[in-house]
Amino acid sequence: MQVENRFLDDLARVANGAIGALSGIRGEIEGLIKQRVERLLTDMDLVPRDEFEAVKAVAAKARSEQEALALRVAALEGALEPAKTKTKTRPKRAKRTKPAGAAK
């Protein structure tokens, strides 16, 4: 009976070592895949999330400032509008004369 226990103990140690080796291989494979993905993303010139959010905030601020300026320009144009609306007169046309030898 003692032999079987020793055999099972050895078998358990071998299995435990194999699991440890597979765990190490798994870690290396994950590291390689992560490296490849990072290299792929770098080659694609993708923007990191924090930079994207910063540019998005700047664009939103610029848009709101532009809208405020558009309202201000419209208000200023409205204030100037009555002064511009004076009656415009067309220059009078000179009467066309007929050439001297023309028939009536």
Task: Draw up the topology in text.
Elements (H helix, E strand, L loop, with lengths): L1 H42 L5 H36 L20
Give your account of this protein's structure.
This protein folds into 2 domains: 1-46; 47-82. The protein is mainly alpha-helical. The protein has 2 helices and no strands. Helix content is 75%, strand content 0%.
Q: Main sheet, how many strands, which sense, barrel?
A: none
**What kind of oligomer do you see?**
single chain
Strand tally is 0
| Secondary-structure class | mainly alpha
Q: Give the overall average pLDDT.
A: 82
* Rg calc: 43 Å
The count of helical stretches stands at 2
In a nutshell, what does this entry contain?
The protein is an all-alpha fold and 104 residues long.
List keywords for this structure.
0% strand, mainly alpha, 104 residues
